[in-house]
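Lecture 7 notes: from sequence to structure.
We start with the chain below.
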Amino acid sequence: MSTPTPRPLDEVAIRASFARYRFASFAEGIALLVLVSIMVMRYGVYHGEGLFTSTSHTWETISQTWSPIHGVIYMVYVVLSFDLWMRMRWSLPRMLLLMLFGVVPVLSFFGERWTHQKMESDLRQRPTLQDEEHPRR
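Predicted structure tokens for the same chain:
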């Protein structure tokens, strides 16, 4: 009995999906850094009563405005990560790792590079629909 041949990946669709993921990864990284900066200003620098009371209210307003925006950006990041994960047919732990990249400040930038390397490695090793059109070297 022979081992079943894995279904080939669609390299063109994967590369398009990765381009969307890359954009979302950078957007999420920047949005998360902005959110962390706002939280530092709100709770660290201008927290409490006294001299900075009006400034504290300003940072509270900024925080209440930016937090939902960041939430939407993260949800878009999650959807695009899921799309790439499905197209690459990666394992569940890889999906969880992609989600984690968007939660820790600055990690999305490094996670994007790591994901790109893994994707390229997998595309070299696994069969794709485009192999018949352009044989690998």
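Points to note: The mean pLDDT is 88. The first helix runs from residue 11 to 45.
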